[in-house]
Amino acid sequence: MENEDQPRLRSVVSYVKRGGRMTVGQQRAWEEHWPRLGRTVSELPSGPVDFTAWFGREAPVMLEIGSGMGETTSQLAAAAPELNYVAAEVYDPGLGQLMLRAEKLGVTNLRLMHGDAVVLLTSHVEPGTLSGVRLFFPDPWPKKRHHKRRIVQPEFVALIASRLAPGGTFHMATDWEHYAEQMLEVCSAEPALRNRYADEPGGWAPRPEWRPVTKFEQRADREGRVSHDLIFEKR
């Protein structure tokens, strides 16, 4: 990330670049749908993205960081047609699969960003404009020496907070206990945010019924790990 305006964020990235070959279906989805649904962060013109023009309507913008293979994302977008839903992901096959899933579900309120969400937020999203940001099951980097690579760090949370509209939410979920505690600590220390469920035991949010159970959660349950949700809102 070579952004001169935000040099302090250079150590914080929203992804680990992964390779992978696409299936025939995923490749078809790229060819048929990407020109309309997708943009590449590194190729965006300078300045903020005009989401109203891109979606063809004015509506609250929800950004999901790390949509993976798109199973949850496609369902969430389909279930909230009132939102302009933006998914940021770096894994090419994952974006292809998300487009296939969206096509199958008839989703029309979804747009895709290929690239680093930190660069997207820093350079191409106006402050105070997002209705929400979702970060579900980010890479946990479980080894202690790798904890500094986790995306939820003070600088990243401050960036998220600056882009949220008043009352906008930052919703996180993880099945790694220590990472959940780190998320809680870092977000609680951000003065622009408040924990919507600070009065609940531990400060954890109740698991929303609308969030689909992911493969990560299913595996975590088998391995005896408890998933935690955290929902902070912009003051």
Automatic annotation (TrEMBL):
Its EC number is 2.1.1.33. SUPFAM superfamilies: S-adenosyl-L-methionine-dependent methyltransferases. Pfam families: Methyltransf_4 (PF02390). The keyword Translocase does not apply. Signal peptide: none annotated. It comes from Amycolatopsis halotolerans. Catalyzes the formation of N(7)-methylguanine at position 46 (m7G46) in tRNA. It is an enzyme of class 2 (transferase). S-adenosyl-L-methionine binds at residues 64, 89, 116, 139. InterPro entries: SAM-dependent_MTases_sf, tRNA_(Gua-N-7)_MeTrfase_Trmb, tRNA_methyltr_TrmB_bact. Keywords: Methyltransferase, S-adenosyl-L-methionine, Transferase, tRNA processing. GO terms for molecular function: tRNA (guanine(46)-N7)-methyltransferase activity. This is tRNA (guanine-N(7)-)-methyltransferase. Substrate binds at residues 143, 175, 214-217.
